[in-house]
Amino acid sequence: MTVSRRTFVQAMGLALLTPFTVRSLAASNSETYARFNLSGSPSGYDIDQDGLIFDLSVASGDPSQTGVVLWTHINPAAFVPGQILYVDVALDDSFTQPVLSAEVNAEDISADRDYTVNIDLEGYLSPNQRYYYRFKYGALCSRTGRCHTLPTGGLESIKMAVVTCQDYTTGYYNAYSHLADEDVHCVLHLGDFIYEYAQYEGFEDAIVHPMSLPSGGNVAMDLEDYRHIYREYRKDKNLQRAMEMHSFIITWDDHETADNAYWDYDRDTLGVPSHPYQTGANNPEQLRQLRRDAQQAWIEYVPARVKVDEAASHAFDYLQIYRSFQFGDLVDLYMTDSRTYRTKEPCKDGSAWENYWCTDYEEKSQTMLGKTQRDWLINGLVNSNARWKVWGNQTLLAQLAGTALGRPLVFANYDAWDGYQWEREKILSSVKDNSVDNFVVLTGDLHTSIASYLKVNFNKISNWDYDNLVGIELMTPSISSPNLNDTVERGVDVGSVFTSLLNGGVQVNNPHIKDFVSNIYGYAVIEFNHSELNWTVYDIDKKSDNPSTNKKAYKTFNYEPEGMWLTEK
């Protein structure tokens, strides 16, 4: 008789063993995913509407065909050593159709993980099914969360929301209030879930959520600072409701650690050019610890099924967050990590004259993803049998430059893929040479809405050259982080190239860019069908504390991959 993994675990009553983190009964409290035993849970609990116990509510992430990661946080003031945390999962929000109940190992709730709880239900759920879940602790029950496992087999359509860049100090999360009500399968978060700042630089007089870090610093200096920032962000009721209603698939960008983060391969340590640890003593061990602290806080506060090796000393070995998701036969999604392995941004260390003539961005040594991750991405895209191949990317992939007759004279942002052009061409050429069709890149970071064609060679200005066209890139505006328009109006230096391009020159200089606007906030919704996709960008005010503020559709774009034609509807 064949015994499935699910049947075996249920029959033996053992802790769930995720495919990435092998747990033992002797595991320490520092393990990533909490152990649990299937059992009944008590009834008659009142809902913790005031957050007395579940102060940051609940969330779910990384849905698969047979599971999801569930998350919650216990208020330290309500923590009782040895007290059991229960979790219930059902097919209805009244929990009259139960699927499973479990007891979470009390030893796995502690200060070691800042009282956060991640449990992985991989292997316990059914495909393409909506579930409801809740936690119970002490005398109270959490608010109910909702999740949706991924489909298998033939699929006609799938709809997802896409978000990025949510600085909490300078804006309100009105967009998340609307996102909570969207009819989407899941939410893709492309990075900058938090910002390391106590106050967003350049906007100190426009702070709506002032923050004081435990260290007293202006930016996160250690694990307690990062944890404090995550807790402050997760207290927001709009964000809580959105994460209760939808499963999030999250990657990170730079601000989960520090602005413009990279890896200094020469010294084998973190590079953070504007952080006090680098501008001051520049101690490599101190910088390595800062990366480890940022990584630990992320896996504590983000519900994700990632590879973690608690015994590893090196940042590359400790945490791997790039991963893929399969939505039936319709969409294969690849979420990458462009900060852990990237080399230093080029052409920044000389004088303005030297930097202008610098061409280091063409060097093969410049990498955004690192060879292992790059090969993983290319192989995944090339071997995918899904109708749509989608890359969840952090920084702008398309060229953004001042040009003459299509030839770039100066690039706007070397922190984006223009600073890593050999690797960009390697990826796009591999897609083209292997006839990978229906290729879509979803991007965050720039606090801007962009719709663009992707090309192997951006010097060729025609958008009808099918030998050069690869697919499209769609960028969502920020939830709340200051956009370029606000930044320039306040006199904050974004560079002379950016400033000139914003004065009407983006599309003239970059004809592959179909649309560019950087004076809105909000999110986007993408719907994949067999023969087309639709991308709708929503404009939602972040400057007043009004969750019911108007949601305006900025634009909707349609893309028909057969003709590689991107149009505004």
How would you describe this structure to a colleague?
The protein has 569 residues and is α+β, with helices and mostly antiparallel strands. The chain folds into two domains: 5-148, Purple acid phosphatase-like, N-terminal (Immunoglobulin-like); 157-568, 4-Layer Sandwich (Purple Acid Phosphatase, chain A, domain 2), CATH 3.60.21.70. 19% of the residues lie in helices and 26% in strands. It has a ten-stranded mixed sheet with strand order 7-4-3-13-12-11-27-28-29-30. Strands 1, 2, 5, 6, 8, 9 and 10 form a seven-stranded mixed sheet that branches. The longest helix is centred in the middle third of the chain and has 18 residues, at 284-301. The radius of gyration is 23 Å and the shape is globular. The model is unreliable at 1-30 (pLDDT under 50). This is Alkaline phosphatase D family protein.
Secondary-structure map:
Elements lengths: L4 H8 L23 E3 L7 E2 L10 E4 L7 E5 L11 E6 L7 E7 L11 E5 L9 E8 L2 E2 L3 E4 L8 E7 L10 H6 L6 E4 L33 H12 L2 H9 L1 E4 L11 E3 L4 E3 L4 H4 L4 H18 L5 E2 L6 H4 E2 L2 E5 L3 E5 L16 H6 L13 H13 L4 E6 L7 E4 L2 E5 L9 H13 L5 E5 L5 E7 L13 E7 L8 H6 L6 H7 L3 H4 L3 E5 L4 E8 L3 E8 L10 E10 L4 E4 L1
Parallel strand pairs: 2-9, 3-13, 11-12, 12-13, 19-20, 20-23, 23-25
Antiparallel strand pairs: 1-6, 3-4, 4-7, 5-6, 5-8, 8-9, 8-10, 11-27, 14-15, 16-17, 18-19, 21-22, 24-25, 24-26, 27-28, 28-29, 29-30
Helix pairs in contact: 3-6, 9-10
